[in-house]
UniProtKB/TrEMBL annotation:
Pfam families: AhpC-TSA. The lineage of its organism: unclassified sequences, metagenomes, ecological metagenomes. Residues 21-179 form the Thioredoxin domain. This is Thioredoxin domain-containing protein. PROSITE patterns: THIOREDOXIN_2 (PS51352). It comes from marine sediment metagenome.
Length: 188
């Protein structure tokens, strides 16, 4: 089944329109610079199963540090399942490279300078900084599992840094999805 007849869902707030991407629908294209001075694009990902995009708040966030360090330890597990992985933030190049230096994420591909507009295209929530440690604006966390045809399989989008999905649970889910050929859900 494709996304024939899929409707674009837009949530209007008093500030901006937020687009909701539904499963089986094409996701926005994305191209970013990586901290290793290369470029990454979603279109170029030719995974066997999925591309996992993990949007994180930035260097200022201790919960992001925990999450990305946990993800970095699971890269081999994702790779064995044919999943390509990237972590993405609105941070500047300087902050993103500082993140790589200070956090234990040596092999994790990290993209930076996601624009606020692009974050909104992905349906991410945007926060304004409330302390000197936080950027003026940044996206809240989101996790997207995208099929090789660039359609959304599943997502988890949050309004704050707490209670993120666990990567062991996600790995188990990927095993189940592949074994049972389980379809994307939530598109109705």
């Amino acid at each position: 089944m494709g996304n024939e007849g899929a409707e674009e869902i837009i949530i209007e707030t008093d500030k901006k329109k937020v687009q909701m991407i539904t499963p089986r629908q094409k996701v926005p294209q994305l191209q970013l610079d990586l901290i290793n001075d290369t470029q990454w694009s979603l279109e170029a990902q030719k995974s066997d199963t999925f591309t996992l995009l993990v949007f994180y708040r930035g260097l200022h966030c201790p919960k992001c540090k925990e999450q990305l360090e946990s993800l970095a330890k699971k890269l081999k597990d994702f790779s064995e399942r044919g999943v390509h992985v990237i972590a993405i933030s609105c941070n500047t190049e300087k902050l993103a490279k500082q993140t790589a230096e200070e956090w234990d994420i040596p092999e994790l591909p990290v993209g930076y300078e996601l624009s606020i507009e692009a974050a909104r295209e992905w349906g991410l929530y945007i926060s304004e900084g409330i302390s000197d440690k936080e950027p003026e604006q940044f996206s809240e966390p989101g996790l997207f599992l995208v099929r090789p045809d660039d359609t959304l399989y599943a997502s988890s989008i949050q309004t704050m840094p707490f209670a993120r999905p666990k990567f062991d649970d996600l790995l188990d889910a990927i095993d189940f999805i592949e074994k049972k050929d389980y379809p994307a859900r939530g598109e109705a």
